[in-house]
Design goal:
With about 270 residues, this protein is mostly helical. The protein has one domain. Helix content is about 50%, strand content about 5%. α5 packs across α10. It is globular, with a radius of gyration of 17 Å. About 10% of the residues have low confidence.
């Protein structure tokens, strides 16, 4: 699928009468509404991330957290280098990247807050299996932040005058599942943002596409992405979708779509020197 077809598939989520508040998602060029200042959201996310670090049990040493940081650094550098070489504004220039590994085998989960604050749960490592699988998950989560999906969701909430406090915009609706599973009030800490809940399937598909690109630019084997989702599908056969899948496209549709993108991404976004 070329970029034009991708844009047609994703569509435009921006209201015509708010054109002055519309921006475009990097690479896909999808129009989106942004009326919430990104800087404000990033600052709030950073504060909440610190509280999460205090409350959760973290894995601070060992090969797993080291690998997460190494993968993250490659993705960081490759994104910045791509936009520099393309003579485009780097959407991560204001990010303060940080990575944590949360010790919770029950959670097959990962998320990235606005501003590059990333968490991986030990439970998802049983599914990622290897470096390329982990890079696929992290690339997807980073893509949400690069595409400013949280800003978009928050802006839509303001536009429709949402009055119900909704908690999960920063992680695409995943922390509420963490809260239910662990009993920890992680959600309570982010509910103060008063934003919108899970990422839409449109945003999830966009993050899949951008995640493939970022992983490819970083030198990872994006063919492993298919194997990752096949393992997810098998692991949850006959069960409710895990947290990481809660608002995502179905496994079958995701695998089919990613298969259609892999050749294009491999050719158009080869590993970039950083």
């Amino acid at each position: 699928m070329n970029r034009r077809k991708f844009i047609e598939y994703i569509g435009c989520g921006c209201c015509g009468f708010m054109l002055n508040s519309c921006s475009s998602v990097p690479i896909t060029d999808r129009k989106q509404l942004r009326i919430i200042p990104e800087s404000k959201l990033n600052a709030q996310a950073a504060q909440i991330y610190e509280k999460i670090k205090e409350k959760e049990k973290l894995v601070k040493d060992g090969k797993e957290i080291k690998e997460i940081r190494e993968i993250g650094k490659k993705i960081e550098n490759s994104i910045s280098e791509y936009f520099y070489q393309s003579n485009l504004k780097d959407p991560t220039s204001n990010f303060q990247w940080e990575y944590i590994l949360i010790d919770n085998k029950k959670m097959k989960n990962a998320w990235c807050m606005p501003g590059g604050k990333i968490a991986v749960y030990t439970g998802i490592l049983d599914v990622t299996k290897n470096t390329n699988g982990l890079a696929a998950v992290m690339g997807h989560e980073v893509a949400h932040a690069v595409a400013k999906h949280s800003v978009e969701r928050a802006s839509r909430g303001v536009l429709i005058n949402t009055t119900v406090q909704i908690t999960d915009v920063l992680t695409g609706g995943k922390l509420s599942n963490v809260n239910r599973t662990t009993g920890m009030d992680t959600v309570g800490m982010i509910s103060q943002l008063g934003l919108m809940n899970p990422f839409t399937r449109k945003q999830e598909s966009e993050a899949d596409y951008l995640g493939l690109i970022f992983s490819s630019l970083s030198g990872f084997d994006i063919r492993e992405t298919i194997k990752l989702w096949e393992r997810m599908k098998e692991a949850n056969k006959g069960k409710e979708p895990p947290e990481f899948f809660s608002t995502h496209p179905s496994s079958a549709n995701r695998i089919k779509q990613i298969n259609e993108w892999i050749s294009e991404v491999t050719i158009e976004y080869p590993p970039i020197l950083t």
